Amino acid sequence: MPERSRYASAKNLAIVLGVVVVVGIILWLDIATGVWSDLVVLSGLAAGLVTFLLNATIIDKLIARSAARRWKSVNRLAVSEILHLVADERTSEIARGKIVPRLLPLASRDADPDVCIAQLEHLRDQVMYERSRLAETLSRWAQFLISSGDNETIMEHIGDITWQLDLVRDAALEAELQIDESSFDALNVQISICNDAIVALECELRDRLVEDTRLRMRDAR
Questions:
Q1: How far is CA 193 from CA 2, 86, 106, 148, 200, in A?
Q2: 66 and 91: one domain?
Q3: Spacing of C-alpha 53 from chain mean position
Q4: pTM for this entry
Q5: 54 shares its domain with 150
Q6: Residue 149: CB atoms within 10 Å
Q7: Per-residue pLDDT tens digits for 3-54
Q8: Which domain holds residue 25?
């Protein structure tokens, strides 16, 4: 089981245990002391608290889990499509589990300013192309991902990458104006941060597919 799944399971278990303890204390006070009969306002607040905790920790999660099971095949399609988006199709074999993320190349300063400008223009074109693909894919799948399971992490990664691509574009424009060592160093810092975000998304998507495959194999037995 991926680390993310183990952490999520432990967190959910801790929350449920906490809710059970709170509800148990409220019931014990009612049975042992009858305090809620004397304090009508507090009893109403306690009842509201119990209802909220049950909805937030159990009922909502059961509904979300049911939706995730019902739409798991479509969810896998969405994850696969986004993974194809960030993978290098020339070197990746996604069906076999070999995934190489497509990263932005680091910029190198050349003695010829024309060569530098051409390189930076190509980088900006690539950045805008990647950004438009990510934005288009997210707009197509966002509503489904929100309503069909625990996909917030995927959407956050995509949002981080989109924002970082904007920073790379701005740094490339600055480097084109300055064409000095410091501006290229600043650009490469932004490119490295963006590449790290791409790798993080790729790892998250790969873990999702590995977990989905494991569950499918378990259900098939």
A1: 24, 15, 11, 30, 11
A2: no
A3: 26
A4: 0.69
A5: no
A6: 21
A7: 555 555 566 666 667 666 766 776 666 666 665 565 655 666 666 766 776 6
A8: 3-70
pLDDT digits (tens, 9 = 90+) for 90-142: 888 877 778 899 999 999 888 788 899 999 999 999 999 999 988 888 888 88
Which of 106, 121, 114 lies closest to 184 in space, CA to CA?
Answer: 106
Q: Smallest Cα–Cα separation from 162: which of 189, 188, 134?
A: 134
Please indicate, yes or no, whether residues 58 and 91 belong to a single structural domain of this protein. no
Domain boundary pick from 21, 53, 70: 70
Handedness of CA 180, 181, 182, 185 (dihedral sign): positive
Q: How far from the centroid of its chain's Cα atoms is residue 168's Cα?
A: 21
The amino acid present at 188, given as its one-letter code, is N
Residue 162 and residue 78 share a domain: yes
Count of domains observed in the chain: 2
* pLDDT at residue 210, rounded to an integer: 81
Do 27 and 87 lie in one domain? The reply is: no
Q: Are residues 28 and 121 in the same domain?
A: no
Neighbours of 179 (CB within 10 A): 15
Residue 31 exposed, middle or buried by CB count within 10 Å (0-12, 13-18, 19+): exposed
Beta strands in 23-153 (DSSP E): none
Domain boundary among 36, 70, 104: 70
Burial class (CB within 10 angstroms; exposed 0-12, middle 13-18, buried 19+) of 144:
middle
